[in-house]
Amino acid sequence: MKKLLAVLTIVCCFGVTAAFAVDGGEYYKKHCAACHRDGSESSKAGGDVVLKGQTAKEIEMKLTGYKDGTYGGAKKRTMERVAGKLAPEEIQALADYIGSL
Ligand code: HEC
């Protein structure tokens, strides 16, 4: 079962890469994991939010919201800086990746 999931994940990631030319998983590891770890636990650096379990749609809405200033909590400045640099296709790829966690 684990093997099947791994294969599905690989197929899925390649699909995302082909469609958006951005690998959400790779981008996440480089630019998000320092604060959000693997997404399954809350941490102080990550604003005590848990990303795992949220849908791609929710993540997309939140990242877009940080970018345009319509979403955020007490520590939104941190995410506004992060999200401000993201292109729409990067937001999409990250949302798809996080939604699949
Ligand atoms: C420097 C630390 C840091 C980095 C790097 C970082 N985040 Fe965050 N993130 C936070 C903090 C702090 C919050 C809480 C912000 C607030 O109060 O609204 C947060 C909140 C979020 C939320 C909102 C969660 C919710 O349910 O409200 C999402 C989605 C998110 N981050 C995704 C990302 C993604 C994707 C990346 C990489 C592109 C990333 N973050 C990189 C610190 C970080």
TrEMBL record:
Pfam families: Cytochrom_C (PF00034). GO terms for molecular function: electron transfer activity; heme binding; iron ion binding. Residues 1-21 form the signal peptide. Coiled coil: none annotated. Keywords: Electron transport, Heme, Iron, Metal-binding, Signal, Transport. Residues 19-101 form the Cytochrome c domain. This is Cytochrome c-553.
